[in-house]
């Protein structure tokens, strides 16, 4: 608040810690009983601990309390601008961005631009292919990302602003300008701000971390990473799975930062002071402590501030000398050499169960997949305008069978509704388990009328209305297996094929029928055979033709019958041989040779 605001601070309490938004509850009094609370809400304010130190933030809450003879009591809560991110939740997807870029985008949406935050001394981090904010507040989302990558943040304050400082190393923290002496509370009087209580605690903690993960694109490799502290005690290993990494360096970084997070609680100091310069994220240099090991730099991880000024109340001025007055704090810290990693504050959201989504792809494409048959989808909760191939990461599609170049493959097509599960409930690891019919994509059967049928029907693409289909009818006495090929049907049988038909067989071929038999053909017909050829019948036999009839062989031609042999033609009749032509006949039988007319020599043969 500006200096023109008619307030006096009566008391305040507040707490601030690394990687947490601070919060200060402040009691004030004013001679004005009707201040405009709406105008004060969300305004920046500076809470001064001393002439040079204090906290800058925004008014998140303000209350008008009791009114006395001349003064009215007010109370407010002072928080950083970052705290406002807790009031907005979202479901959305970030793709191909580093964590720093994601955090910067979220902060920008809240009006926190790059002059109000800084990434101090950062290492290089790869972009995340896919990162989901699922039902989290923007604040919880940022804090979770910081935890996953081992980032921390704190605030630097001035009377007119505060800056959010992100870091991933100890060098990101700021040393206080001057040492603070240790002056015990029961000892001599301090000449200035001092630490009057200082305690050190050592805790047993994990001294080894191990993590493992799986990458389907490196299915033959075991992804592992481990880190160890130079401890002489027995191993206390923390094994985590999955490790959320696919690259070796990434796994080593995650494992090391997990170890640093556990180790940062090994040595913890706490104390009390009236030093107003103490702020979390800053190094306290302690001096004049009788234990030499305590003198040095300590990273302040948490500071609780408290102040009282009862003398501002004229109504109770007589009590001003009683009780605590002024400023004091309590603090916690860790050694300067111990890499600080913030503890987990918010768990990553989990999606236990399935959701549905719509398959997407570039404009004009009906099928969009990669070499693994993965597709992209648009989740129903995703409000982004992306409805094409940028809508999500590639999602693997489960099948009933998947082996080394064998199995089943059905690629969901653009526009289909699919059922999506999540590996280990992780929103960043979606996987498709099936497809669903809906009002836009109805079933290929009329149900419940055809409820006894099972069908697999495809659709010609692109832009086709044809289909291939396998349909099974299980209705009693109407059982049927139906196969429809929109164009070609190919069968390849590498050994035997046996076909048994207990009823009738019908076959219609609109074009040519070509059969090539590379060995013998044996065919048995138990009854009659009727063949109707509406054109010509051509047979070419490389060797012999044998026809055996149990009773009669009849051959009739409308015009001609020609028999030709290169060497010999034999007509053999057991009883009677008759030749008939031109009204005459020649009969040969056991009685002799008979002709209906005398035989004449000469004549001209008719060529066949």
TrEMBL record:
It is found in: Secreted. The keyword Signal does not apply. Residues 371-436 form the Gp5/Type VI secretion system Vgr protein OB-fold domain. Residues 454-560 form the Gp5/Type VI secretion system Vgr C-terminal trimerisation domain. Keywords: Secreted. The keyword tRNA processing does not apply. InterPro entries: Gp5/Vgr_OB, Gp5_Vgr_C, T6SS_RhsGE_Vgr_subset, T6SS_Vgr_RhsGE, T6SS_VgrG/RHS, Vgr_OB-fold_dom_sf. It holds the Pfam family Phage_base_V. One of its GO terms (cellular component) is extracellular region. Belongs to the VgrG protein family. This is Type IV secretion protein Rhs.
